[in-house]
Design goal:
With 185 residues, the chain is α+β, with helices and mostly antiparallel strands. The chain is 39% helix and 13% strand. The chain is built from five helices and four strands.
Length: 185
C-alpha cells in the first residue's frame, strides 16, 4: 500500500498544523497538561529554531502556525513535541497512578498513547490565509464554549496579539537558540 501523504517543505512557507490526542480523548483537559505541553513546545522551538506565529491548546488537540525550522523540518518538530510531551506526561501519570481518572484515560496511558499517529499540515503561503488561520485558532475556545472571549483562554497566542503579552511560548520572533556549556561534575 503506497503512502499518499505528501508534505511540502523547504519553500519557506508557514505551516498550519493540527494534531489530535489519541482517539480525540480530552487528554489535555487539565491545566497542568496544557501548561506542560506549552513548556515542551517552547523547548522544541528553541532547539529546532522556528518561529511560532500562533498556537492554541485545546482539550483534545493542538493547532500551531509555524515557520519552517532552521534545523530539521516540520515533521521532525512535531515528532519532538509529541514524543517529548508524551514521555513527560506518561511518566508523571504512571508515577501518580490517579485512580480518579476515567477508564479511557487509563487505557490510553497504559498503552502509552497520548497522540494520534499523524498530523494535519496545511501550507500557508498568503497573508490572507495566515490571518484566517490565526483567527480560526484563537476563536476555537470560544466556539467550543470554553470561554466567552478569545483572550480569556490562557493556552493560546491570542493575548500576544491582543495585548502584547508574553506567554510561555515566544511568538512571532526569531530568537536564536543559545549554546550553553555544562560544567562537568
Amino acid at each position: 500500500m503506497s503512502n499518499k501523504l505528501r508534505r511540502y517543505y523547504d519553500a519557506g512557507y508557514l505551516h498550519f498544523i493540527t494534531t489530535s490526542c489519541y482517539r480525540r480523548l480530552p487528554l489535555l483537559r487539565k491545566v497542568q497538561h496544557r501548561d506542560l505541553l506549552l513548556e515542551v513546545l517552547e523547548r522544541v522551538r528553541r532547539r529546532y529554531r522556528f518561529v511560532v506565529v500562533g498556537y492554541v491548546v485545546m482539550p483534545e488537540h493542538l493547532h500551531l502556525l509555524i515557520s519552517e525550522p532552521e534545523r530539521g523540518d516540520p515533521s521532525k518538530v512535531m515528532q519532538a513535541i509529541k514524543q517529548g510531551f508524551a514521555r513527560l506526561l506518561l511518566n508523571q501519570q504512571r508515577a501518580v497512578g490517579d485512580s480518579r481518572q476515567g477508564s479511557l484515560w487509563n487505557a490510553a496511558v497504559d498503552r502509552g498513547h497520548i497522540w494520534q499517529a499523524r498530523f494535519y499540515d496545511f501550507v500557508v503561503f498568503t497573508e490572507k490565509k495566515r490571518v484566517e488561520k490565526l483567527r480560526y485558532m484563537h476563536r476555537n475556545p470560544v466556539a467550543r464554549g470554553l470561554v466567552l472571549e478569545p483572550q480569556q483562554w490562557n493556552w493560546s497566542s491570542c493575548r500576544h496579539y491582543a495585548a502584547g503579552e508574553r506567554g510561555p511560548v515566544l511568538v512571532n520572533e526569531e530568537q536564536k537558540a543559545e549554546l550553553t556549556i555544562r560544567k562537568s561534575a
